[in-house]
Amino acid sequence: MKWPLLVMLLSPMLASCSRDALEGDDRRVNTCVGDADCASGVCRSDGLESFCVTTKADLGGLYLDLDLPADSPFAAGLRIVDRASNFGIDLQGTRADGFVQGVSLGVAVPVTVRTNLTIGELPPDCMGLAGSPIPASMRLYPVGQPIGVALPPYDGVYDETFGGPTASVPVGIYDVVLEPDTTTAPSCWLPPLLLPERTLSNATDLYVKRGEVAGLDGHLDIPFDPACATDAEACFRVELLDNRSGRSLARHVEQFAEGALGNLGFRLRYFRPDADEPNVVPVLVVRPPSALRAQGMPELYWKLGAIDPDGDGDVSLELAPLLAATTRFIPLEASVRNEDGDPAAANVLIVSRQLLGGAIGDNAVFQASLPTDTDGNFAVNVLPGKYDVVAVPASGTEFALTNETWTFADNDLGKGRTLELRLVSRLAGTVVTTQSSPLEGLAVQSSPAVSEDVSLLEAVFSPGQSALLTSLPRTSSASTNERGAFELPVDPGRLDLFVKPERTSNLPWLVRRSLAISATDPQALDLGELRLRNPAVLVGEVVTPDGMPLPDVTVRAWLSLPASSKDERPSAVTLGEATSDATGRYRLLLPPSVAQ
Q1: What's the pTM value of the predicted model, to 2 decimals?
Q2: What does R_g of the chain's alpha carbons equal in angstroms?
């Protein structure tokens, strides 16, 4: 389509939304009279003013995220994420007349999902719930979204006519969690039920039937502590979790002394995954009571299929060697200091997956989080092994998140170790226009590079995942000065950098992804001149299916990105956002591409 015709089609939309946003504002930066003012772009008019737009774009993998306010007259409180291409948006290649695309963003009708739960055979202590269906609450967790786009769960509301909860949600894929309501049978221990990866594309009634509640009886070869009967801190905490999501699959029933030896027994209730739910992999987690945790006893993780291969619900776990090992604990007394040797306040995370040389298996992990005292000291009991120790300094200091690896042998006294905080690194740059003019007062922000989700076991046992903060540098922000310069204090790790001009400037965000900050030495990383390029522009209205405008909708653009090396995972970054005005109109300015 040639430029004059496109101007005629877009001018009413552009003029109306621009006038509301820009009148009375003196922060317009991107303006032009003709193409000669636009360096590599072209000059476009919206009927109110002219500004430069890009003629080249590389935004494949673009998603739009429509966030509707809680008081929206339609689809209130929902967030709808979809590929930009499904809205007819194409921001790739070259266009001599510039990338300005008029797009009406239609909010699809939410789908209604209703659920009722029937259990064929109730445990004896749940007979007070006899009848059909079983009262339950419902929560739906969006899954399968673009990496890095975290969406909120949706809760159902009880529908008396249907006999179960109902919810309105955007079209998508969801983990549906049903939580039986046992208010009328307080001694009943019914477990939650996970229905994984349900595709909801139209109104759906989920009639969920389970024949019975399965029992899981466990036997640990260690003495039962009678104090558990009155003190929860004296009990082992036994959980059954979904490996993919980490969500609970079971309800704890009891712990008891078993047999002549008085060893510890426990009982859980859960719903066995159906054969058509192969993605549900139950993981049994055993967390020690506080007294044993204080002696360095780790948590243990098993895939249920490995310890109950015949599926009879009877598992025996050998913890006696681990309990005996706690007599070898080392009373670690250490401190956190700054570069001058003075005490420093910090929160210390200490993690190990390599305990006792593997003598107790490879399914144990120890982790503790504790603050330093006023003298910078901390104390914790540990078993012999290799530990990652991470200190997160207090906010507002000049010190960075600092990690070291400490190894403790059997004869280690655990005294005299010091974790010296490293200074923060400095990330600097200068922000200019396409004409090299410096830009003052722009918000600059760094945040952890968001990578793909990992499973529960990956998060616990894989180095560099969420158990270790080394992969999570803290967010930092600054503003550019009169020369367009900025300097950010940053932690080690991988981070994304965002430069965010005011929306009224007619400039897009600048995004630099996956910047690597050294974990060993403080560094001054100067990115040099960061040039805010001419934007690609999306304009139009946010509307209901019948064309009614929707005000106050936040429109975000995300770019899904593949891994750039074998050491990285796929990720996503936000490219910009806008808000629809009182008449539903929006204008979204996007950088033409993302640099690394």
Answers
A1: 0.86
A2: 29
